[in-house]
Amino acid sequence: VLTTIITHNLAIGVIVGIALSSLFFSRKIAKLIRIESRLSPSSDERVYYVKGQLFFVSVNDFLAAFDFAEHLDRIVIDLSEAHLWDQSAVMAIDKVVLKFRRKGTDAKLVGLNEASQTLIDNLAIHDKPDAFNQVGSH
After folding, report:
1. 70-80, pLDDT tens digit by residue?
2. Among residues 103, 45, 47, which one has the least CA distance to residue 72?
């Protein structure tokens, strides 16, 4: 309303309103990502359970949930209750997987839905033979 009053142009007011609504919505749903982890009884594997929407706004919370200092043989990222929305989500997964692999920890993704798997197949580099050399291209 304020934009319409200042500019005397209803179209600009509507566009600003839509833009602000989109921004507020994306900030709200970014907080809906949750990551829990469980260590195996043998203490050599940790499973990270990702729940919610992974996209450009929630990537920082996603990255902060992983403990790269922990010495494990294997980690599993369970995405069965998550959905990947964009390239930044794929890049975040690449970053996590490659960082663990550099430390000698085997990293595996499980539970991707069909749409998320398609994004991974088309955009991810962590599963490519020369992944460590391609990191800069992301």
Report:
1. 999 999 999 99
2. 45
